[in-house]
Amino acid sequence: MTALPLVFDAPRRGLPPTHLADLDAGARTAAVAGLGLPRFRADQLARQYYARLEGDPTRMSDLPAGLREQVAAGLLPPLLTEVRRFETDAGTTRKTLWRLHDGALVESVLMRYPAREGSRERITVCVSSQAGCGMACPFCATGQGGLTRNMSTAEIVEQVRVAARAAADGELGGGPGRLSNIVFMGMGEPLANYNRVLAALHRLTDPAPNGFGISRRSVTVSTVGVVPAIAKLAETGLDVTLAVSLHAPDDELRDTLVPVNTRWQVAEVLAAADAYAARTGRRYSIEYAMIRDVNDQAWRAELLGDLLAPRLAHVNLIPLNPTPGSQWDASSKRVERAFVERLQVRGVPVTVRDTRGRDIDGACGQLAAQGPEEVG
User: Fold this and answer.
1) Which of these, 129, 136, 134, lies nearest to 147 by C-alpha position?
2) Which pTM value belongs to this model?
3) Which residues of the chain are modeled with pLDDT < 50?
4) Catalytic: 364?
5) Region label for 142, one of left (φ > 0), alpha (ψ between -120 and 50) or beta (otherwise)
6) Would you state the pLDDT for residue 357?
7) InterPro entries, per this entry (predicted)?
8) Which is nearest to 350 in space by CA: 317, 321, 301?
9) Which residues are paired to 125 by β-bridges?
10) 133 annotated among ligand-binding-site residues
11) Active site residue: 87, 126, 364, 374, which one?
């Protein structure tokens, strides 16, 4: 069996120069001192970045003009260059293709969900944690492209800062707003880049000047089921929301749809998610892409319901957003409704994801797969 990539602490090979967002408070202070600057500048820079959402030192008014170039070179190197941006849903959904310093391409999606009865408005950003993905799920555009490299902590965090700034500046349809939710459901397997994702989670949830201060309950980390990393995450005390991309309740099919299942099978993955729920007190989500005539049969709905009925789990059904030329297609609405009903009758809470961005190559990895020459 070919070993699938599982990276807990890889070297910086291929990564960009160290950025402010790569550093915790102590390292940030040391880096500022290393530039020959007073230590108080570390707190000043961090407040600009995390509280004011400013990433350009030339616009940091409390930083002397003579220091801005030095700070830019030493602590705020450019990380993301916009290649192309697409908008839909009256401007409330924005998908951006970014080029990293080495030419690798990644994507992020910013979405505004209006307030509904019993719920507040949400502005959510979906971020990437790897350039490409090594998990090789055949229905996923990113998985079929393979893994280029892990992203740095700062490359992950910068996607959030840019999104939060865009929301605050009113660039998203509906006027100015506050970024409220972050989901690690973009390109890559977050738990295969564990250490950098963990550091990014701290930057996202720690209060200023060490982070953006986003509620931990509003941050979701999705995984195909990297069991050892789920256990490690549970012990951190961060208590972010866990989402497991299951896509099949039986090992025979899941071995095909999610190849990492040959390493950690359904029972092991659910046991790890149960342990996470027991440790954190948080319900976890089961992500299930509805694929026509592949995993949407009635008996699979019943098996999934029987597996999850005793568990602290919620099912998020995802209408498949097929990629061009793919053999995979979305289940019909009739089959989708029947699947939902079979879960509900077994007492399993279930929702169907609000599909966004079908007209802007919204499926993860579609823009990057096309390449910059074709999209812009």
Assistant:
1) 134
2) 0.92
3) 1-5, 7-11, 360, 362, 374-376
4) yes
5) alpha
6) 53
7) Aldolase_TIM, Methyltransferase_A, RNA_MTrfase_RlmN, rRNA_lsu_MTrfase_RlmN/Cfr, rSAM, rSAM_sf
8) 317
9) 110, 182
10) yes
11) 364
314 annotated binding-site participant: no
- Identify the active-site residue in 107, 155, 158, 287: 107
Distances (CA, A) of 103 to 82, 114, 178, 259, 371: 12, 36, 31, 28, 10
126 is catalytic: no
Q: Was 137 annotated as part of a binding site?
A: yes
Residue 54: name the closest of 143, 160, 161, 205 by CA.
Answer: 161
Cα 155 to Cα 149: distance, rounded to the nearest angstrom: 12
DSSP string covering 22-35: G--HHHHHHHHHHT
Distance (Å, whole) CA 220 – CA 239: 10
Give the tens place of pLDDT for each residue, 286-337.
999 999 999 999 999 999 999 999 999 999 999 998 777 778 999 999 999 9
C-alpha distances (whole Å) from 136 to each of 44, 328, 335 are 43, 15, 27
140 is in an annotated binding site: yes
- Domains, the chain, with CATH or none: 20-75 (1.10.150.530), 81-375 (3.20.20.70)
Q: What is the pLDDT of residue 2?
A: 39
